[in-house]
Amino acid sequence: MSSEAVSGAEFDPWSPEFVADPYPAYAALRERGRAHWFERSQQWLIPRYADVSALLRDRRLGRTYLHRFTHEEFGQTPPPAGQEPFHTLNDHGLLELEPPDHTRIRRLVGKAFTPRTVERLAPTVRRLAEGLVDDLAADGGGDLIERIAEPLPVAVIAEMLGIPVADRPLLRPWSADICGMFELNPREETARRAVRASEEFSAYLRELIAVRRRAPGEDLISALIAAHDAEDRLSEQEMISTCVLLLNAGHEATVGTTGNGWWSLFRNPGELARLRADPGLLPGAVEELMRFDTPLQMFERWVLDDIEVGGTTIPRGAEVALLFGSANRDPARFADPDRLDLGRRDNPHLSFGAGIHYCLGAPLARVELAASFGALLRRAPTLRLAAEPQWRSGYVIRGLRELWVEV
């Protein structure tokens, strides 16, 4: 089956109406075929679960091409010189690297960011979540995004990195400005904010790393400094990029899943009642909420060698847009996929990715989500929606601007 081009009327990630509910468009894309050219972003859209899952593991695709080609050899224009601070920061992070650099850095980071590290944090995460929920309940409600979803993951990663409490308000604005560059066709003002945030965040972390070199602590930065394999160590830039990635990727996913998840529960009161009646459903409920309305809707990869998807040849130099939100609602993989089912057993959703770029922070994200949802269920059992929420303008990282609730 060959593909047809997709028009902006069918797929419009810049439209508020589309961002609010992209799922009907996804269903139409899956029905029409397996690969669709989208002129406005110069990408091939891949909507079906089997293809998205396979391409995430396919080494003919990569997050970067610079380990094999120059920009010119790959038919791409180098980024503007003025964006260098952002690209230096971003391009040294695990998410943007391919082997052998990805293999080396993930191995070294893995020595510091272990399951035991996450397990040791769990009581702290629960304590932080309960404190935030108790404050929300004492006030009779508020904006769930501002009061719970955003502060919890920022506090957790700041605790892990050993960032002083007084400096922690800096992290969220830096993260938001940097992540703006991951949207489709970012504007010049978005790029300027991302560059400024990259410079400021990098300078801050460089100074903190210098302090930890002189006086190591029990924090993750000290562990990254100490991590080595024979004579192999992380460079300072690799440490800085790793710390920023842990904040940005973990924070954005957790905030999005918390907001999108509660909005899904409020729209499915039977499932919310089911969860309140049976707290044992919580671990599976977190997975189902991530599947049902994932915050990461699209994951982009470069085609390093020609591939074929459903009879369509996608040539080297092209970019594919793997539609996680569509794959997670594919009826070929999930029974009754548009129904929220907190007891769903067979749930291999792709919200954390797959292959070598599977989310390193997935265990921590699960701990944070279980802690915040659990605390709200236990300590705010009458939580209810106070106002219809509005979506942020971003599509790639898709989430609510605010979610007002009453207790």
Lay out the secondary structure:
Blueprint: H1 16-20, H2 23-32, E1 36-38, E2 43-46, H3 49-56, E3 61-62, H4 84-91, H5 101-112, H6 115-138, E4 141-143, H7 144-149, H8 151-161, H9 171-179, H10 188-214, H11 220-226, E5 228-229, E6 232-233, H12 236-267, H13 269-277, H14 282-292, E7 298-303, E8 307-309, E9 312-314, E10 319-323, H15 324-327, H16 362-379, E11 384-385, E12 390-391, E13 400-402, E14 404-406
Parallel strand pairs: 2-10
Antiparallel strand pairs: 1-2, 3-7, 4-14, 5-6, 7-10, 8-9, 11-14, 12-13
Helix pairs in contact: 4-10, 4-12, 5-11, 6-8, 6-16, 8-12, 9-10, 9-12, 10-12, 12-14, 12-16
Indicate the CATH architecture: Orthogonal Bundle
| Quaternary structure of the protein | single chain
Class derived from helix and strand content: alpha+beta
Provide the domain count: 1
Termini separation comes to 53 Å
Catalogue the unreliable spans: none
- Strand count: 14
Mean pLDDT: 93
User: What's the helix count?
Assistant: 16
Largest sheet: number of strands, sense, barrel closure: 5 strands, mixed
β-sheet strand percentage? 5-15%
Q: What are the secondary-structure elements, in order, as H or E?
A: HHEEHEHHHEHHHHHEEHHHEEEEHHEEEE
The fold-level CATH name is: Cytochrome p450
Strand order of the largest sheet: 1-2-10-7-3
Shape: globular
Q: What does this 3D model show about the protein?
A:
The protein is α+β, with helices and mostly antiparallel strands and 407 residues long. The protein has a single domain (16-406), classed as Cytochrome p450. It has helices at residues 16-20, 23-32, 49-56, 84-91, 101-112, 115-138, 144-149, 151-161, 171-179, 188-214, 220-226, 236-267, 269-277, 282-292, 324-327, 362-379, and strands at residues 36-38, 43-46, 61-62, 141-143, 228-229, 232-233, 298-303, 307-309, 312-314, 319-323, 384-385, 390-391, 400-402, 404-406. The strands form 5 sheets. The protein has a 5-stranded mixed sheet with strand order 1-2-10-7-3, with helices on both faces. The protein has a 3-stranded antiparallel sheet with strand order 4-14-11. Strand 8 and strand 9 (312-314) form a beta hairpin. Helix 4 packs across helix 12 (236-267) and helix 12 (236-267) runs parallel beside helix 16. The longest helix has 32 residues, at 236-267. The radius of gyration is 21 Å and the shape is globular. The mean pLDDT is 93.
